[in-house]
Structure formats: C-alpha cells, structure tokens
Amino acid sequence: MAFFLETLIGGLMAGMLYALVALGFVLIYKASGVFNFAQGAMVLFAALAMARFSEWVPQWTGYDNLLLNNLVAFALAAALMCGVAWAIEHWVLRHLVNQEGATLLMATLGIAYFLEGLGQSLFGNDVYKIDIGMPKDPIFVLGSVFPGGLLVNQEDVMAALMAAVLVVALSLFFQKTATGRALRAVADDHQAAQSIGIPLNRIWVIVWCIAGFVALVAGMIWGSKLGVQFSLATIAMRALPVVILGGLTSVPGAILGGLIIGVGEKLSEVYLGPFVGGGIEIWFAYVLALVFLLFRPQGLFGEKIIDRV
C-alpha cells in the first residue's frame, strides 16, 4: 500500500506540472482560437532567459545573493516574455485575423522555430542550471501510519505547490477581475466582444503575456529539476495529451487532465511496464489521448461543436 501511495503522489506531482504547461495552450486557444504549437518553445525560451539572467545579474550588480539574483532574473525574464507576446501580436497575429485555422497553426509552428533559434542566439546552447533554492533530498512522511513511512521528493512537492498556486491565481483572475471577464468574453465571441468596445488586439497581447508568464514558471520549475536544455521544448509538448483529455477550452479540464495523465503514467510504468517491456510512461498519455479523440474528441470538459446547416 505504501509503495502504491508513493507512486500515486509522484504522479500527482508530475501531473500538476503538466497541467501548468497545458494551461498555456488553453488560455491562448480560448482567447484567439489558435492552437499554439509554440508553447513548448516558449517554455524553453523562458527557461533559458531565467537561467542566463540569474548568471548575469551578479556580474552586473557585483552582489551575489541567490534570492536577489532569482528575483531580478525572474522580473527580467517576465518582461522579456511580455515583449515576445507583444511582438507576436503586433507582427503576426493582427495580420492573420479571420484567416483559416491551418494558417494560424503554421504561424505558431514558425514562431516555435524562431523562438528556439533566437534563444540559442541570445543565450547559447549549453546545458544551464536554475537554482531557485528548492530542496533536493527526499524525506519520509507518515511514519506512524506506514512502516518506514512514505518516501516523498521535496522538490516535487514544492514544484507542485508553486504550480497549484499559479493555477488558483489565474482562475481567480479570470473569474473576479474586469480584465479576466473581458478575456472570457473574447473567448466566447470575438465579434460580440468587439461590438461592446473590448479591444481585441490588446486582449490578445494580455493573453500571450499570461501564457508567457505561465511558460516562465513552468520552465523555471522544469529547469530546476532537469537542467535547462533544448529537450525542454519536447517535454513541454508532452502536455498535448493533457489538453486533448481535458478539453481545449477548459481551465479545470487542463488541471484534471494533467493529474490523470501524471498518475496514469506513473502507475502504468510501475504496474504494466514489466509486462510490455518498459517505456510505457513515454507513450501512455498519447494512447489515452487517441482513445479520447475516437470517442470524445471535445475532451472531458470541452465544448461540443454542433454545426447547423
């Protein structure tokens, strides 16, 4: 029982990180109808910026303090991601309004390759580390309940808590603020939102800024766990099955989908892996997403599309 709970907790921790990346996909799709294939590249670009700025800040200030370095680096990286968001809207999106979905999809693919190349040019292509002070050593908990206790990775717990706080904050932002309500109005109907005076271009910039901020937090956490390297873009794309499972237009769906995928990967690797030769953790999420596409293509919480002729 203890081993099962350890695996379950590890899956929930990984699922929160998947949900955080999936949230970036959902936000942009809700506001602009664009499935953003550049989200993985945004995670990589933001992580590279955070890693390199944290190295450069002590050189610029002459004062080496971990907390100060990270705060300044985070602020600079967030500002950079907002600049990227403005550039995407100003030079790409506003020229593609009312274009076919395939055109917008290809545009995000182009943005992805551009960001990967720009990140390599600006920050280099080595493997960098991000040290945000998260404890690395595992601990044993609930020793009075289970003999020997449950082995829990402190870094995973801290990362999951950070992701959960951001998800809750974004949910409150969308529900309680005027800007959040405007974003939801644009998501429901672009033309109706414009007719009551909501500036579509400004809303798109805000959404891409939020998606960039989410990518920065995700990149910072993944970079702290695995190091900042170009495989981060691939790891971020593993959130695609989460979006398919939860629904392209649902924030709660992204959260629940991430948890299901995270737990499913860990449990399947442990309990089914020995029977299929291992490696099931790599493809389990995509098989599950394929099943949903066959039987419920809108996902668990997505809006069912009905065409009337």
Tell me what you see in this structure.
The chain is mostly helical. The protein has one domain. It starts with a helix and ends in a 14-residue tail after the last helix. β1 and β2 form a beta hairpin. It has a two-stranded antiparallel ribbon. The radius of gyration is 20 Å and the shape is globular. The protein has 13 helices and two strands, in the order ααααββααααααααα. The chain is 72% helix and 3% strand. The relative contact order is 0.19.
Quick recap:
The chain is mainly alpha-helical and 309 residues long. 72% of the residues lie in helices and 3% in strands.
Structure summary, number of beta strands = 2
Q: Which structural class best describes the helix and strand composition?
A: mainly alpha
| Percentage of β-strand residues | under 5%
Name the shape in a single word: globular
Q: What topology emerges from the helices and strands here?
A:
Layout: H1 2-32, H2 39-61, H3 66-91, H4 101-123, E1 138-141, E2 150-153, H5 154-176, H6 178-188, H7 190-195, H8 200-226, H9 232-237, H10 240-246, H11 251-271, H12 273-276, H13 280-295
Helix pairs in contact: 1-5, 1-6, 1-8, 1-11, 2-3, 2-4, 2-8, 3-8, 5-6, 5-8, 10-11, 10-13, 11-13
